[in-house]
Amino acid sequence: MKVLIIGSGGNIGTPLVQALVDRSLVPTLAVRNTQKAEDKWGNKVTTTQFDFEDPTTFTSALEGQEAVFFIAGHSNPVPSVQQFLTVAKEAGVKRIVFSSGRTTGDVPGKPLNDVEKLVRTWDRQWTILRPGWFMQNFVNWLGGTIRAENKLFLPAGNAKTAFIDVRDIADVAATCLLEEGHHGQLYNLTSDEALSHTEVCALISQASGKLVTYVPQERASFISTMLEKGWTEAAANYTADLYKYVISGKEEEISDDVAKVLGKTPRRFQAFAQEHADRF
Ligand SMILES: NC(=O)c1ccc[n+]([C@@H]2O[C@H](COP(=O)([O-])OP(=O)(O)OC[C@H]3O[C@@H](n4cnc5c(N)ncnc54)[C@H](OP(=O)(O)O)[C@@H]3O)[C@@H](O)[C@H]2O)c1
């Protein structure tokens, strides 16, 4: 199977490439910087120049590919994904897997929802993944204040979140890319438990041996806290906007779709925290 991965340098893409390599495939990575991808993966992959913001890169990247994984984290994704899906069909791609997001994938007017609509009208095989919040956020995106001052600032109140380990998203994506039976499916991807951020910090503390505290904040104080810590205004506002959905309780619901697709229990936060103890 010839598989093309878009977003291969990211949270989901990195373990997805690994999952495909582990299955003895040589995926093609569609990237803006081919040298960077080659330095990272060597001859385990092939690379092709690709930029969602530059449609002239679409045809050569998609030529000869059978299955394509993509995310839509770039700015203004709808027109570029529309064009991309047209070129994918012309190039003979048989199957696409789009990783959306649980928070806004079902919210009309949000880019991920608009892209999901485009994917649903693609007339070859498609699968949509809607992952919950990533466990890896606590070492990447939100990890700075945990490492620097043993504190996690968020406007999340006491709401619970059913997190997901990106390695489980990657395993589900690999299965949907390579196996039959997933056409027309939308999978909600979560672990089998929902945790408050107080519970998250307790598990991080247990794993790391440091006392990490959750500091719940209102939107305005969260934004000013993060600006003081060097975040941009756009990043602080974007994060605060997303946490409106968390605080509403929307992220609490647990899905058993990971177990349905993979036939095994998803990873839990405690195991994730222990494996990443030296990153906190
Ligand atoms: N964080 C969460 O908790 C969470 C939860 C659910 C859903 N999501 C969704 O997941 C998606 C992000 O996935 P991720 O976290 O795996 O990605 P990520 O870590 O943010 O990385 C983005 C990847 O996309 C590539 N990329 C960016 N702009 C591009 C462009 N114009 N053309 C081609 N490639 C481009 C980047 O390449 P470079 O390496 O060249 O920069 C990078 O590999 C977003 O749609 C987000 O809303 C996130």
Give me some keywords for this one:
single chain, 280 residues, alpha/beta, Rossmann fold, UDP-galactose 4-epimerase, domain 1, seven-stranded parallel sheet, two-stranded parallel ribbon, 12 helices, binds NADP nicotinamide-adenine-dinucleotide phosphate
What is the fold's blueprint, element by element?
Layout lengths: L2 E4 L6 H10 L5 E4 L2 H8 L4 E4 L8 H5 L4 E4 L6 H14 L4 E5 L11 H10 L4 E7 L11 H7 L1 E4 L11 H13 L6 E5 L7 H12 L4 E4 L2 H10 L4 H15 L9 H6 L6 H7 L5
Parallel strand pairs: 1-2, 1-4, 2-3, 4-5, 5-6, 6-8, 7-9
Helix pairs in contact: 1-7, 4-5, 8-12, 9-10
The structure holds NADP nicotinamide-adenine-dinucleotide phosphate (NAP).
The site of NADP nicotinamide-adenine-dinucleotide phosphate (NAP) has 25 residues, from loops.
Can you walk through the features of this model?
It is built from twelve helices and nine strands. The chain is of the alpha/beta class and about 280 residues long. It folds into two domains: about 5-130, Rossmann fold (3-Layer(aba) Sandwich), CATH 3.40.50; about 130-165 and about 190-250 and about 265-280, UDP-galactose 4-epimerase, domain 1, CATH 3.90.25.10. The strands form two sheets. Strands 3-2-1-4-5-6-8 form a seven-stranded parallel beta sheet, with helices on both faces. Helix 1 packs across helix 7 (about 165-180), helix 4 runs parallel beside helix 5 and helix 9 runs antiparallel to helix 10 (about 235-245). The protein is globular and about 55 Å long. Bound molecules: NADP nicotinamide-adenine-dinucleotide phosphate.
